[in-house]
## 1
Amino acid sequence: MTLKQLEAFYWAATCTSFSIAAERLNISVSSLSKRIVELESSLGAELFNRSARNAVLTSAGEHLVPHTRELLTHAGRFLSVAKSSSAIEGRCRFGAGELTGLTWLPKMIGALQTALPRLLIEPAVGVGQAIEQGLVNGELDFAVIAGPSTRPGISSLIIGAAEFTWVSCHTLQAGRDVSVLQPAELSALPLISLPSSAGTVRILDDWLTEQRVNPERVMSCENWGAIAGLICHGLGVGFLPKAWAHALIKRRILVELIAFPELRPLPYTFQWRRDDNRPLIEKAREIAIKSIDFHAPSAIMGGGAH
């Protein structure tokens, strides 16, 4: 019995497929299967029932999963002490929300490459809910998204927060004068926002409840750049990250809705699977804490939002 065999068994048991588990370990599916077969041979018991379309754990396999997790946890702690950062290598695929991708993600990746030169870094940018599911499935090593997570298998550490400002163009297409716009009037205006699967829905729902407002129509879009464009074109009102909003206000493209109470800051977290004790996770967490900065220049703002 070897540590590699135990790793192959554990990740195959806790990921949604053998192929995802193999990617996580940076080996081929055939190598993963070979290690599991070798472990089964040494134990004298089948750990997976392979007669079904997808391999499923046998009762023996289910029984051994928590014990294997414990062994790997101790092994991970040993390696974190024994290995230096320069020894961390392999493939690292992590997830980040679009707001992170448009601001401080390049800074974080640069710091990761400097600290871990032998690591192949593959970022995936998307909506928080999908990113978190990828983490649960074992497709991602860690994530930096709005949080914290409510899933029992995911650990979350708050590392910062994003702030937002309510804005509109100077004159909406409906002919409304926005200088005197009140929160109650949002009921009759289009609201432009990210979809319900995004982290911002948490603070938006709280705000709407506090103001007792129910927008007549919500235009949702998954892209911050498109949201900014729709608001600038006068198709509705909405909120943008504070640094971007203030840059557009300064350039007289948008106006702040000063009668609208501020949204509460949206906390962002570093998330990882509770069963993942690799030195990589600890190092990436340290770098994320040092890198987070939602006031960083944005590509869609032409570098003007400081």
## 2
Amino acid sequence: MNPTLPEALDTWLTPLRGVADPGGHLDWDRLSTLACALDDRVARHPIGPDLEPGARRSARLRAIRAELARGGVLDTAGQPALFAVLAQFLCGYRDIDLRDATGLGHGALIARHAGPAIRRRWIPRLLAGELAGIAITEPHGGSNPAATRTSATTTTDGTWLVTGRKTWISRLTEAAVFVVFLRDPHGELAAVVVDATTPGMHRHDIPPAGLSGWTWGILDLDHVPVQPAHVLHGEGMMLLRHHFAHYRPLVAATGLGGAAAVFDTVRTALGVRHATGDIARVRDSALITIGRAHAQLTTALLGTITAAGLADTGHPDAERWSAEMKAHGIDIANQATADLAVLVGAPGFRADSQLAKARRDLGGLLYADGIHDSLFRAAGKQHTTQPRTTAVTTDASEADSLPLSA
């Protein structure tokens, strides 16, 4: 069992207040309310280790999201970026599959770049608990948007007909709406909002090795009709870069929250074993591992907070920081959980152990929303080339510099 979320708030986040929120602008009471609400909703809809059928698990996750919406704690839009990051840390602390428990997720693209009618249609539904998916990756080009082959043709009445294949799509069957990246009728990269019930959309579910709370797999589009009003405003690559500069810190925070829960579980287990006499003392090597893991997780979270703040203010380095901190945060979370899990022995390697589940989920986050090595490489490239003057490039020739995936 994970330690309680209010404890996570007190032991992990409260010590960071002076650095993360020096002006005292964050609504910490609201964050505490969210922490308690998460505990309550997970108790009502227990999700546990992911050894049950995926549909049953995703139904519970959707119920949690919907109840958080009814409780008034799902919407993070009116809060500073720091709030969304810490909220996702708390979600990950309870279960990494709760990475979609708060906020708009990929629906932020609709909120920022869709026309008024499309926003009025979808934003209230997303804030009521429905989910948005994103479709970028294709079989031939990995997550390189420059290689996108999904394309739209125009009919005589102006309707676009979209055809193509998108791969490794999360929320495949749960999403109510997708943001699909494609070539518009002029060959330019663009994004369109597609109702998940639109005819011509075919799904092929593939069981994942981690992050199994949501379905995952292939989305085929066969002459899917899209109206021009459903096209997001802005050049496709610019939209992607801006979105992921904001989104990646949330992914990193979720993973770090999951690793923090592993830390607390292991720390508590060792204390109990020592108190009951099962072990004479906690060995020095274990103490070193625990101390190192706490330092690594805390500093990675501070870096993630910084990246989110840069994205929130439109800083020119926001994209690079977000890429680095997503890759670094998930790397650290994976290493810390691997080092910590062995300290509890064989029970931590049972298939139904929450520790084992956290390790599977963190392994999945090495690939989701940008493969970590590619993100480091891209950030290194930006460090060694001419400094950028804007946070979001519009040059499609740079499309492979920061891989994008979800």
